[in-house]
Write a structure and sequence with these properties.
This protein is mostly helical. The chain has a domain of 102 residues: Up-down Bundle (Four Helix Bundle (Hemerythrin (Met), subunit A)), CATH 1.20.120. Helices cover 61% and strands 0% of the residues. It contains five helices and no strands. The longest helix has 28 residues. The chain is globular. The N and C termini lie far apart (57 Å).
Length: 158
């Protein structure tokens, strides 16, 4: 009996590249030495803790909200649905926002130049990845442009 293999995701080289670079940046953030530590006031340390905690919570709320539409890659899977409720009603990429807040908060807590540099690299990477992802989402969902006009990329439109 012959089975047809159909991939769950139409992955491209760009999908794999974005994801690999993302994991590399996150790994470097964890394992890289904390070069040239800044002497920041104590209140900034606590602000960093709050920002990191908010990012952690936002990340998990966004993941749970996506449910079966969650994909490791920027290209949506064939079975994914456009999620426009919960946090996605206000932000198109809350997982990226959560990760960025988490990294920013940790950068402040650790107060190391290398961590801030990796945060900026992550910010640029997630911006490019989100732009690529949105091109793919427009192709899959006819109402994505309308949704995009109502929401913010990483923060709500205020």
């Amino acid at each position: 009996m012959k089975r047809d293999f159909k991939p769950k995701v139409n992955t491209t080289a760009a999908d794999i590249s974005f994801t690999a670079i993302q994991f590399l940046v996150l790994l470097l953030f964890i394992v890289s030495p904390n070069f040239y530590t800044l002497n920041l006031p104590d209140f900034l340390f606590w602000c960093g803790i709050v920002i990191a905690l908010l990012g952690f919570i936002l990340f998990f709320v966004a993941v749970l909200t996506l449910g079966k539409s969650l994909s490791l890659y920027p290209t949506p899977s064939p079975k994914s649905e456009l999620i426009i409720h919960g946090i996605y009603k206000y932000i198109r990429h809350p997982i990226y926002t959560g990760l960025l807040f988490f990294l920013l908060g940790l950068s402040i807590v650790l107060a190391g130049i290398s961590k801030f540099i990796l945060f900026v690299i992550a910010l640029i990477l997630f911006s490019k990845k989100a732009d690529y992802e949105e091109k793919r989402l427009v192709l899959k969902f006819k109402n994505y442009e309308k949704y995009k006009a109502k929401t913010g990329k990483f923060l709500p439109k205020i």
